[in-house]
From TrEMBL:
Protein name, per record: SCO5389 family protein
Organism of this sequence: Frankia umida
Phylogenetic lineage: Bacteria, Bacillati, Actinomycetota, Actinomycetes, Frankiales
Superkingdom, natural source: Bacteria
Amino acid sequence: MSLTVSPSLLTQAEQGHVDEADFLACIRESLPYAYDLVARLADELPAAEGDFTDNQIPPVGDAEQGQLLRAMASTAIRAALERHFGVALAFQNCHRLAAFRPQATAGEQYRRFVSPQSQVLNQQPGFVNC
């Protein structure tokens, strides 16, 4: 399971509305590695020379890798993180996450990052099972 949902959050969902702050708290508590990585990249973005900052360091273990994969595989989780931190996220391999300035998604750096060429060039034998 990707999120540890509190009874009150479940009640909100059953009643038809989930508070964004409560959902983000659930993400932060359930997927701390992924949440903290996005927070770090968002914090680094204002000082970045280009339109993005990225992480190229693999997670320290399977649990952290799983958290990141679950966060990036969920449209709702990913979108909540993007809204909260004011970034556009792009993901490669099992750990290379980039935070872009939202307006940069129409630019060359973003297009290059999300291109098939970039995906192929960022493959490594150790990523086979990620």
